[in-house]
Design a protein that fits this description.
329 residues, TIM Barrel, 2 domains, 8-stranded parallel beta barrel, FMN, EC 1.13.12.-, flavoprotein, monooxygenase activity, NMO
Amino acid sequence: MRTRFTEAFGVEHPIVQGGMMWVGRAELVAAVADAGALGFITALTQPTPEDLVREIARCREMTDKPFGVNLTILPSITPPPYAEYRAAIIESGVKIVETAGSNPVDHLPFFKDAGIKVIHKCTSVRHALKAERVGVDAVSIDGFECAGHPGEDDVPGLVLIPAATRKLRIPVIASGGIADSRGLVAALALGADGVNMGTRFMCTVESPVAQRVKEQIVANSELDTKLIFRTLRNTARVAANAVSREVVEIESGGAEFADIAHLVAGARGRTVFEEGDIDAGIWTSGQSQGLIDDIPTVAELVDRMISEAETIITGRLNGIVAAKAGVRV
């Protein structure tokens, strides 16, 4: 199943495990790479640039397949040392980077000079077109169903993906609401060159999050997420739990960030993933959790997606076309 994405980025399957805070660690990324997909270490999960260098080296010890690093660039009162993290990526010889958050234009010359291909995550067509203009090699377009920050336009993937692919010339990775072979086939039909999955990869054997979190994802339905920070115009989709429900309730009465800051601290979300206390803080999960009913190995997941996608394309869809043409199938 080859696409412009697999050809350009040197991977076997058009499947991506995007960077996830506290989740994109070497053991998951290496398993994704060995399965023939593209995984990303999350740079800012590592406390320092030096720790990132060590994590990249640790991943290289586990796999000889291509993998990348995610660098999420967000406004902050005390921003991380982005230039130092960027230098750590370049000096480690990584050849694929996923950027997200703010415009990556200030970082692109450094990555390009080092021969690094860049995928930029976007939540709108206008942002994707701007990313193409500044020189990224591909975009990952996030529909409203996604975990994390879906933007403020509330456009779901069924509309956003074809709206993007009809205007962009570079490869497009479909993201948000995808967890199985049906989502892969649908994304390809909508014009995408591959799919990005976060929640689905988080719920695998090699994922470094606590088993209790994985079991909760399996138990949850597509209705078990909450949209927080809506009133602050910084919407985030997270799993429904005691904390996210409290945040939504406080926001409904009118709130400033200071009123909820103690509830949404990143350290509390890290506790969820590392200790398995699902009500310790907010934690990201997409609506695709309603499609997840097991905790496979990464290899089992990728193999299943590809084989079932081929069956859908050559079986059911081919049968529909043949039936329309009056051919016996």
